[in-house]
Design goal:
It is a single chain. The protein has 120 residues and is of the alpha/beta class. It has one domain: Transcription Regulator spoIIAA (2-Layer Sandwich). Helix content is 38%, strand content 32%. Strands 1-2-3-4-5 form a 5-stranded mixed β-sheet, sandwiched between helices. β1 and β2 form a beta hairpin. InterPro entries: STAS_dom, STAS_dom_sf. One of its GO terms (molecular function) is anti-sigma factor antagonist activity. It holds the Pfam family STAS.
């Protein structure tokens, strides 16, 4: 039933400038505010959002991700997403594959962060 989903998040600090935010559950109208709050609380220059534990993702999840991306970009930071095929499809359907950095695994995302840091 609509709105019966739950969403949980946990944060792991990789180093002083990188945080991994793990998200589990479903993202819909009822849980998008939980995602938004978790993104706002992830205080780091680079935030890697691992969405591989998300089993349901609606367009309500897009706004918190874009807002976080914009906020980090304004501070010369970066948002990296670890996504499933379903979530990549949702984000790509609105053109965000051109804007958001998406990866297939947390390891790939952290490698991209390390590589960007080398060039940074």
């Amino acid at each position: 039933m609509w709105g019966d989903r739950t969403l949980s998040t946990s944060t792991v600090r990789v180093d002083e400038s990188v945080v991994v935010l793990r998200v589990r559950g479903g993202v819909d109208v009822a849980t998008a505010p939980v995602l938004r709050e978790a993104l706002e609380a992830a205080r780091a220059d680079v935030v890697v959002v691992d969405l591989t534990g998300v089993d349901f993702f609606t367009s309500w999840g897009i706004e918190p991700l874009v807002q976080s991306h914009d906020r980090l970009l304004d501070r010369a930071g970066a948002l990296h997403l670890v996504v499933t095929r379903q979530i990549r499809r949702v984000l790509s359907s609105v053109g965000l594959h051109h804007v958001l950095q998406m990866h297939g695994s947390a390891e790939a995302a952290l490698a991209a962060v390390a590589e960007a840091d080398e060039w940074g």
